[in-house]
Design goal:
- With about 190 residues, this protein is of the alpha/beta class.
- A seven-stranded mixed β-sheet has the order 2-5-8-13-16-18-19. The protein has a five-stranded parallel β-sheet with strand order 3-6-9-14-17, with no helix packed on it. The protein has a four-stranded parallel β-sheet with strand order 4-7-12-15, with no helix packed on it.
- Helix 1 packs antiparallel against helix 2.
- The chain contains two helices and 19 strands.
- The chain has a domain of about 130 residues: Hexapeptide repeat proteins (UDP N-Acetylglucosamine Acyltransferase, domain 1), CATH 2.160.10.
- The chain binds coenzyme A (COA).
- Coenzyme A binds next to strand 18.
């Protein structure tokens, strides 16, 4: 587990003193692409879906086959994000990726979902909680997962292949058994799919 202060936006680390000109230019291009992505967030048109996919593929340095990202999807710390094939992320989702976020193939994330990969330490009685160190805990979402509307997935969680997470759930513990349906706050097994 890594523990250091939260980075901003793209999750940049402080520039190294011997950072080469090429690296600086690459960073600048990434910043421009991210700026364009942010300004495309509200546009619903299919052209913008394609453009968002193209920009994310460049930023993530990955083929993003059939990715659909709907308007107003915030992605923080994209350098720690990996996305599988045929993934859709719907309106108003919030992906915090600074701690590492892996999304498998054939995943559908419904609108208003938050996926968190960081949380504050809170054990120092003197320092305000917001000033205490931030823990970075990766989240892994398996293949063929359907995450319902307005779900919250907390830092450090893994979700097994074939899981359905019911609308409004807060997932506080990893889901290890494949092909189950979980729901509620906190999310609990409601049934098996088959
Ligand atoms: C999880 C879900 C798929 C389950 O659907 P289902 O198989 O038809 O389940 P049922 O309606 O038979 O419900 C089984 C039990 O779970 C409960 N339950 C179902 N969904 C729930 C949810 N989201 N939160 C809490 N409890 C839920 C039901 O109340 C029922 O409880 P009971 O046995 O005490 O009566 C569905 O309820 C759901 O949340 N779908 C997400 C929809 C969505 O977000 N769509 C976005 C667009 S893709």
């Amino acid at each position: 587990m890594k523990s250091h202060r939260l980075s901003f936006g793209g999750g940049e680390e402080p520039p190294s003193p011997n950072c080469s000109y090429v690296l600086s230019m690459q960073r600048l291009c990434q910043k421009i692409l991210y700026f364009v992505y942010f300004n495309l967030m509200s546009l619903p048109y299919e052209f913008c879906v394609c453009l968002r996919r193209y920009i994310l593929a460049k930023l993530l340095n990955q083929e993003l086959e059939d990715l659909i990202v709907r308007p107003w999807v915030y992605i923080y710390g994209y350098r720690k994000l990996s996305i599988g094939k045929n993934v859709s992320i719907n309106h108003n989702c919030f992906l915090s990726c600074d701690g590492g976020l892996e999304i498998g193939d054939n995943v559908s994330i419904a609108h208003g979902t938050s996926i968190l990969t960081t949380q504050h330490s809170y054990d120092d009685p003197v320092i305000p909680i917001k000033e205490q160190t931030v823990k970075f805990l990766p989240v892994k979402i398996g293949d063929n997962v359907w995450i319902g509307a307005k779900v919250t997935i907390l830092a450090g969680i893994s979700i097994a292949d074939g899981t359905i997470v019911g609308a409004g759930a807060v997932v506080t513990k990893s889901i290890t058994e494949p092909d189950t349906i979980v729901a509620g706050v906190p999310a609990r097994l409601i049934k098996k799919r088959f």
